[in-house]
Amino acid sequence: MKKIELFEDGLLQIELIENTNSITLVWTGKSTHRKPSEFISPILAETIRRSNASKKRIIMDFRRLEYMNSSTITPIIKILERAKRGATEITLLYNKSLKWQDLSFSALEIFETQDSKVEIKGVENHVPGNK
Predict the structure, then answer these.
(1) Hey, which end of the chain has fewer CB within 10 Å, N or C?
(2) Beta bridge partners of 18
(3) So what's the pLDDT on residue 87?
(4) What is the CATH number of the domain that holds 15?
């Protein structure tokens, strides 16, 4: 059974899609707030809680994100650090064709683990829902 929730803060939307095997967070719009962690961190904390309770992989899909300021990366780094140390499994997807995404997210490959518990994947030009 699929469960969908939508969180919005200004220009940023995070859609949470929970299905049988995973919990996907689809990020769209722009993250421009000075303190984006006030909005993002509670969503990530709840997602981790659900993931740990159900043993589902978290997929953070940034391919539709148009822009994020430097403050937005902090809560993302924190969830990757937490996953690397704990039981949570995370895949982060980004659009490798967008230079700003490639620069921002490829740097997060340092969080990848040998056992694929944490994966950072750059995908070329394929964004669901975009033409």
Answers:
(1) C
(2) 3, 23
(3) 86
(4) 3.30.750.24
pTM: 0.92
Domain carrying residue 45? 3-123
As a whole number of angstroms, the distance between CA 86 and CA 66 comes to 30
Which segments of the chain are extended strands (E)?
3-9, 12-18, 22-31, 57-68, 90-95, 118-123
CA distance 47 to 61: 14
41 burial (CB, 10 Å; 0-12 / 13-18 / 19+) is: middle
**What's the token pair of residue 43?**
């969503």
Query: Is there a contact between 16 and 7 (Cβ–Cβ < 8 Å)?
Result: yes
Q: For the chain, which ranges sit under pLDDT 70?
A: 1, 125-131
CB 33 within 8 A of CB 9: yes
The answer to whether residue 78 sits within a structural domain is: yes
